[in-house]
Design brief:
The chain has three domains: 6-261, TIM Barrel (Alpha-Beta Barrel), CATH 3.20.20.70; 297-388, no CATH class; 397-535, Alpha-isopropylmalate synthase LeuA, regulatory domain (Double Stranded RNA Binding Domain, 2-Layer Sandwich), CATH 3.30.160. Helix content is 40%, strand content 20%. The chain has helices at 25-38, 52-61, 87-94, 108-115, 119-135, 147-153, 155-168, 184-193, 214-223, 245-255, 263-266, 269-280, 301-309, 332-345, 355-370, 378-389, 437-449, 501-516, 523-531; strands at residues 6-9, 42-46, 69-75, 99-105, 139-145, 172-177, 203-207, 228-231, 297-299, 327-329, 397-406, 414-423, 426-434, 460-468, 479-486, 491-498. One of its GO terms (molecular function) is 2-isopropylmalate synthase activity.
């Protein structure tokens, strides 16, 4: 039996049904690129034609030429209709995808109650829809909704549904625990029972986490013969969420010996999970297995003493295998090791025994206590380390800024920013408008600097996220602002924290431009700028 597992990610569809998860078309494109880099085999993008965001996503994703197969989701034809004339099936074809996921009823209770049709008509709906898409050249993944509940109530009909989908040409027959109420032993027994009526069938599993068993149920299904696994990153999804691929993939690959994604791809799992968390603007639990910030964290006492000798004493895998890292809390020595390692990754020479090193470690701890988080803001961290090591040459310094926000009756809000910075000993004062305070600040700061540093024309702000750190303080709470910036070659993230969202945004904004100038503007550029100051209109 093959040990290869097909990984199907539905973060962009099923994941967005989770409370608090809302993704723009741009967010979905970013996540799709990240999932493709991770190496998942299928990326379910959404429901074509259901909303403008999904329409834009399916159009834009075709231009990316991803390795992963983009799939569109839809239901079988309506009762009493013809597949060729079904609007939902037509939209799937128009989306330009390589594969389609069709959902159909497999629980007789749902057929009678939800669809209000006969069991025979439901089978025809399934057959006609799959056969139509197969005739059009699409790969078809059939999701048998409520399969396990249906099997428990009427096993003959549940099996008949899968058999009919197989007869129509479905490439994968996916059994869904839609209500999330099944237990691992039930999943295993039911999957095993299908080997008789469906020999050699390509079976898949799709579970929900209502009993906190989605991952366990998925593993049970795989061990019983399933070779296609559906889930979401970080377990996003309706109600209690979907099966968490961040746990499923390493469990299958590292614990059970199945082939899911490449070994090197697995090392990017933590980065992918945290990136998607930031894009979705949803807090990732620190204790999330494998990819959480505390997944390999140790705090004091016997544990720390032991893992410093051999990490296997209190770690079930090497954290690096999933791209995570060991963290020792309340340990100055371990803190030095972590910071020095990070500095080395950035090409910064930092002596762990020096006072300079101790100072920067203390500074980082102090900032993290205030609410800064550098996990998703490597650019701000690098600036901090370079400043501490004496390698950072400040090409401009901040003097002041002012904001004007005006709202007149019946008119849109107008934001205007006034910024004063110092370049090469000269004060520069500029003003600019924007469609919001942060955009106005960005425009004013860029206007002040671009005349001296033309490369700033190549960068732009790609994303902006605000997270409340402690909601008990209501509108006076501290916020953390994360800004993603891009130029033609790279992207980088910076962070700012304050009880004032404008100040936090300004910190992140300034860091984004300071980072953009690293290694791009030499002192000679500044000297040349000084020479032409007389020609510059301040």
């Amino acid at each position: 039996m093959s040990k290869s597992i097909s990984i199907f990610d539905t973060t962009l569809r099923d994941g967005t049904q989770g409370e608090g998860v809302s993704l723009s078309a741009d967010d979905k494109v970013k996540i799709a690129k990240k999932l493709d880099a991770l190496g998942v085999h299928y990326i379910e993008g959404g429901i074509p034609g259901s909303n403008s965001k999904d329409i834009e996503f399916f159009k834009r994703v075709q231009e990316l030429r991803l390795t992963s197969k983009i799939t569109a989701f839809g239901s079988t034809r309506r009762k009493g209709s013809v597949a060729e004339q079904d609007a939902n099936l037509k939209r799937i074809l128009e989306s330009g995808v390589q594969a389609a996921t069709l959902v159909g009823k497999s629980w007789d209770f749902h057929v009678h109650t939800a669809l209000q049709t006969t069991l025979e008509e439901n089978l025809s709906m399934i057959y006609d829809s799959i056969a139509f898409l197969k005739q059009k050249g699409l790969e078809v993944i059939f999701d048998a909704e409520h399969f396990f509940d249906g099997y428990k109530n009427n096993p003959e009909y549940a099996v008949a549904v899968l058999s009919k989908a197989r007869e129509a040409g479905a490439d994968w027959l996916v059994m869904c625990d839609t209500n999330g109420g099944s237990l691992p032993h039930e999943i295993s027994q039911i999957v095993t029972s299908l080997q008789g009526p469906l020999p050699g069938a390509n079976l898949g599993i799709h579970t929900h986490n209502d009993c906190e068993l989605a991952v366990a149920n998925t593993l049970s299904a795989v061990q019983a013969g399933v070779r296609h696994v559906q889930g979401t990153m970080n377990g996003y999804g309706e109600r209690c969420g979907n099966a968490n691929l961040c746990s499923i993939i390493p469990n299958l690959q590292l614990k059970l010996g199945y082939e899911c994604i490449g070994e090197e791809n697995l090392r990017t799992l933590t980065n992918t999970a945290r990136y998607i968390s930031e894009i979705a603007n949803v807090n990732m639990p620190v204790n999330q297995p494998y990819v959480g910030n505390a997944a390999f964290a140790h705090k004091g006492g016997i544990h720390v003493s032991a893992i410093l000798r051999d990490s296997r004493t209190y770690e079930h895998i090497e954290p690096e295998k999933v791209g995570n890292k060991q963290r020792v809390l309340v340990s100055e020595l371990a803190g030095q090791s972590n910071v020095v390692s990070k500095a080395q990754d950035m090409g910064i020479a930092l002596d762990p025994a020096s006072e300079q090193s101790k100072h920067i470690i203390g500074k980082i701890k102090e900032l993290e206590h205030e609410g800064y988080q550098f996990e998703g803001a490597d650019a701000s961290l690098e600036l901090l380390l370079r400043e501490a090591s004496g390698e950072l040459k400040e090409l401009f310094t901040f003097e002041s800024f002012k904001m004007l926000v005006e709202k007149a009756a019946g008119q849109p809000v107008v934001s205007e920013a006034f910024v004063k910075v110092n370049v090469a000993g000269e004060s520069i004062y500029t003003a600019a408008e924007g469609n919001g305070p942060v955009n106005a600040l960005d425009n004013a700061l860029r206007k002040a600097l671009v005349q001296y540093f033309p490369t700033l024309k190549e960068m732009h702000l790609a994303d902006y996220k605000v997270r409340v750190l402690d909601d008990k303080d209501a509108t006076a709470a501290k916020v953390r602002v994360l800004i993603e910036s891009k130029n033609f070659e790279n992207s980088w993230n910076t962070v700012g924290v304050s009880s004032n969202v404008i100040e936090a945004s300004w910190e992140a904004l300034v860091d984004s431009m300071r980072y953009a100038l690293l290694g791009q503007i030499s002192p000679e550029h500044v000297h040349a700028a000084e020479k032409r100051q007389g020609l510059v209109n301040h």
